[in-house]
Structures are given as C-alpha cells and as structure tokens.
Amino acid sequence: MRRPDHGARYASGLRRGAALGILLPVLLAGCDDAPAPPAADPRPVRVTTVAPRSGGDVISLTGTVEAETQVNLAFRIDGRMVERRVNVGDRVAAGQVVARLDRTNEENGLRAARAEMTTARARLTEARNNYQRQRELLQSGFTTRVRYDEATRTLRSAESALDATQAQVNIAQTRLGYTDLVADAGGVVTARGAEPGEVVQPGRMIVQVAREGGRDAVFDVPPTLKDQAPADPLIEVALTMDPAVRAEGRVREVSPQADPVTGTFRVRVGLADPPPAMRLGSTVTGRMELGAGGAIEVPASALTRAQQQPAVWVVDPAAQTVALRPVEVLRFDPARVVVGSGLEAGDIVVTAGVQALRPGQKVRLLGTQSAAR
C-alpha cells in the first residue's frame, strides 16, 4: 500500500488559495456596485402661517339685571304684625308706611312713662319749694345749715329723677314710632318675608326693596377670566331676548370670595343710563374684549409638549424640515391657543400630524393658511 504524497497535497492547497484570492476581489467589486437603499419619503403635514391678530378675544357671559342698592326693611322691635300694605312688585315712596305692628304694648309703655314723669315733676316742685323756704330761713337765721343742705340734695335728686323720666318718655315714644315700618327711599318691592298675624323679631326682613337710581348687570365669572380681565374694562350689555336693547357699563364690584359650589366670582357691572326695557330680573348678555391685539393664535391641534413644556413644530421653509419650539400659552380653548411668546409672524406651524414627527425630519406641506384674524 502506497503512502500519500505530501508534496502533491501541498501543491493542491496552494492552487485552491490562489483561486480564492482571485475570486474574492471580484465578489467585493460586485458588492460595491449594488444600489443604495432609497431615502424615506417626506412626511406629509398640514401647516398654518401665523400672524398677529387684529384684536383681542370677545368674551360673552350671561347674567341678570339687579338693583344697584337692594335693602331689607325690618322692624326695630318685636311684636305681632297686624298689617302689611305692600306686596311684591308694588312701588313704594320715601316715607311710606309699608307695615304695622300691634301698638298696644308700646302705647301702654308710653302712658306709664308719662305718669312717672308727672310724679317726678310734682316731686321736683315740692323739692324746689322746700329749698326756697330753707334758703330764706337760713338767711334769717331761723334754720340750720344741715337742713338747708338736705333741701339742696333733695332738689338735685328731684331734678335728676325728672330728667330720667323724660328720657323714658322719649324712649317709649320712639318705640311707639317703631311700630310703623317706613320706607326710607323709593323703589320696588322684590320680596316679602312675613305675613300679617306673625310675631316677628327685630331685624327680620318684612319686605325687600330695590331702590331707584341705579341698575347693575350681575355675572358669575370663572376665576381664569377674572384674572385675565383688563383693568376697568368697558362692558357691553344687551338683553338676551332682544339684543337691540343695549347699554354700557363698567365693573363696580368684584366679590373677593368664590362661590363654594360653582367656584365663580360674582361681578357687578354698573349700567350707564339703562333703557326702560332692561327691567329688574331680565336676562342679559355681557360682552368684553379680552387681551390686546398683536397676540398670535394657532389651532389647538398644533400644540404638543417638549420636556414637560408647551411646544409646537415649526417648519424650516428652505430645508423643508421641522423643529420643536417651546411657546408660552396665554389662554386656550378646545379650538385655539393664544401664544404669548415663542412664535413670530410668518412662522409656519404644523397643525396636523404632530404626533409622528421627530426633530430634523423632512416634511411635505399639504396646505398653508394664514392664522391671522
């Protein structure tokens, strides 16, 4: 049996290596000639060109017409009310009696006070005569100084007693006058709080009177709107059922505390020369321009977030790429966002497709419209 020829095997290996060395550059050259993968198509987006707005937002709220001054008329003393002369909707004049209490107790009190005053007056007359007599006797030397001093004290005490009873008479007369409830100013009765025959306590509202001389439009304003409102704004108020009936006014009073149920603030707008058709209780609509012109507004769909801050995608028109830009949001609603800073007039902002973009991405604009108002 013959042994393998080692030299032959070595020569055969050299021939195979040389063949691979020749074939490898050819294969690599073939790879270099392969076409590169196609670039990603630009993402289509809808955009808008921002521009300063010509005016501010017009805010509308619904409210009611109320009297500028509304008072509760009440008795100052307790007693049984025997008469109420007015009802809701009646007009009252200054000095008019609107209700009465039973006068029996107060008349008896006045008679008792007058009787006490009569007694005190008689005692004063007696004390004055005794004092005069003791003074003359002292000058003649027929009485002592002690008796004279005692007569003087009695006179002073009688004078004080008469003053006290006079005060009691005045009080009784005043209380008797309090049995009549008198309107201190003209107006219209808007509510009643007690009926004839009831025993009422001091301060209990008998009738509520809306005084003449002023009308307010009263609105419940959300806190965000209250904080953004300009100083001393001019409010245009119109009847909701008849917008042709209009009046203007300015904020007269703002409640410092929010309503615990609604969270709104009560705002009273004093109306200047309201028309007669703007009656008490009428439903009105108040309009106010909020914010100065020049602010930039974009659709709400353009807003996104970058590092937990509001931002929008801005298109570079030359490179057709997008970049995130932080913005300051002044106010917003479901349809629009008012931007305070971060955008300038002429910027192109993406309004649709913002969720699928990345910084530097190529885009294709589907439509451009001006955001100016």
Write up what this structure looks like.
This protein has 373 residues and is of the alpha+beta class. The chain is 28% helix and 36% strand. The chain is built from four helices and 23 strands. It has helices at 6-32, 104-140, 145-177, 223-228; strands spanning 43-49, 57-67, 70-74, 79-84, 91-92, 97-101, 180-182, 187-192, 199-200, 205-211, 215-221, 234-239, 246-254, 265-272, 283-290, 296-299, 304-306, 309-316, 321-326, 328-332, 336-341, 348-352, 363-367. Strands 1, 17, 18, 19, 22 and 23 form a six-stranded mixed beta sheet that branches. Strands 2-11-14-13-12-15 form a six-stranded antiparallel β-barrel. Strand 17 (304-306) and strand 18 (309-316) form a beta hairpin. The radius of gyration is 48 Å and the shape is elongated. Mean pLDDT is 84; it is low at 18-29.
